[in-house]
Amino acid sequence: MTTDRMPELPAEALTDAQKAAAETFLAERGVPVFGPFTPLLRSPDMMQCASRMGLYLRYNSVLPLRISEFTILIVAREWSQQVEWHIHHPIALKAGVAPETAQALAEGRRPATMSEDETLAYEFSMELQRFKAVSDTTYAAVVARFGEQGAIDLTGINGYYALLAMTMNVARTALPEGAARPLAPLTP
């Protein structure tokens, strides 16, 4: 087990900018700083920008919540990000992602049980995460289904959750006390 490099900062150690950012976070989200925002608080302006982007991508994008959460699981798996998966797996299931679909992702397999929209999000996300680009065919299919804004929002979800995954992987953000590691290491 690795040690959390950037654990929660004690309240008395926060700078004025960090205190203000934490207060804004609480006011906007209704919860104290948690998960990826704990290490991001070391850069309070970045944390606030990231939080606001996340609020848009999770709750105001043109994509259905099920597709957003499904995409977050893809990113969490691609980055082997335990905390991200731990947070979003139950939300994805509640939003309508089938348990067997999520399980296949967790195991690093292409799910055989995806809906048409999930298949589009999967192809787009996997191409973007693995090849750093999206083919014309996949792009056209996503635009035909979700529009250009949907293609941008899907790109944003991939990028934003990759940023959070990278942040937590660098910080070695710990799972909550007593939580089991939900993702096994991927093997080639």
Describe what you observe in this structure.
Helix 4 runs parallel beside helix 7 (116-131), helix 4 crosses helix 8 (136-171) and helix 7 packs across helix 8 (136-171). 65% of the residues lie in helices and 0% in strands. It has helices at residues 16-29, 37-40, 44-59, 65-78, 82-95, 99-106, 116-131, 136-171. The two termini are 22 Å apart.
Helix/strand layout:
Elements lengths: L15 H14 L7 H4 L3 H16 L5 H14 L3 H14 L3 H8 L9 H16 L4 H36 L17
What keywords describe this structure?
65% helix; 188 residues; single chain; mainly alpha; 8 helices
Could you say which structural class the secondary elements and strand pairing correspond to?
Answer: mainly alpha
Q: Helix count, per DSSP?
A: 8
Outline the biggest β-sheet.
none
- What is the overall silhouette? globular
Mean pLDDT, as a whole number?
96
Gap between N and C termini: 22 Å
Provide the gyration radius in Å: 17 Å
- Low-confidence runs: none
Tell me the strand percentage band. Answer: under 5%
Oligomer: single chain
Number of strands: 0
